Amino acid sequence: MIEGRLRILLTAAVLALACQAVAQEPLIFMSPEQEARFNELTLELRCLVCQNQNLADSDAPLAQDLRKEIYKMMQAGQSNEEIKMFLVDRYGDFVLYKPPVKGNTLALWLAPAILLLGGGLVVVLIVRKRTRMFAEDKKENQ
Q1: What is the pTM of this model?
Q2: Which of 8, 42, 105, 110 is disulfide-compatible with 99, CB 3.0–4.6 A?
Q3: Contact 73/85 with Cβ under 8 angstroms?
Q4: How many CA atoms lie within 13 A of 31 on its CB side?
Q5: What does the angle CA 33 – CA 39 – CA 45 come to, to the nearest 5 degrees?
Q6: β-strand partners of 37
Q7: Quick one: how far is CA 63 from the chain centroid?
Q8: Where are the domains of the chain?
Q9: Cα angle at 46 between 66 and 81, to 5 degrees?
Q10: Tens digit of each residue's pLDDT, the chain (142 residues)
Q11: Region label for 39, one of left (φ > 0), alpha (ψ between -120 and 50) or beta (otherwise)
């Protein structure tokens, strides 16, 4: 008897949460250009929770809040640069998919090249060492 009531209560709670999570107010834009601008801007900004998704694709609550914030700022007449600067001031350069090259982001830009060069150097050294070892073994066997 208690298990049945508990199961019904749990089911009702899950359904209520699911309905709340799905229900979002649609954003009404003044023009198709403004909607395109919004979509472009949310594609350029990173979801801080998901990290490998942009704001447009993320379903995280923070991403939903940031999309609403961007929408409000656009309705207030702020430019893309003003919106980006607001988010960078608030969350840092990480919010941008293409962070600017400066002191604290230099590692992001240089790390791939350094790792690639380092890996190439390791491969060259290993190939040279094995070539020498093969040549020495060949001389000893003759």
Answers
A1: 0.59
A2: 105
A3: no
A4: 4
A5: 135
A6: none
A7: 11
A8: 28-100, 103-142
A9: 70
A10: 667 676 776 665 665 555 455 456 777 888 899 999 999 999 999 988 887 888 988 888 988 999 999 999 999 999 999 999 999 999 888 888 887 777 777 777 788 889 999 999 999 999 999 998 888 877 777 7
A11: alpha
The CATH architecture one would assign to domain 28-100 is Orthogonal Bundle (1.10)
Q: Give Cβ neighbours of residue 61 (< 8 Å, ≥ 6 apart).
A: 49
Between helix 61-75 and helix 80-91 the angle, nearest 10°, is 140
Structure tokens at 64: 């939903």
CB 38 within 8 A of CB 26: no
| CA pair distance 128, 142, nearest whole angstrom | 21
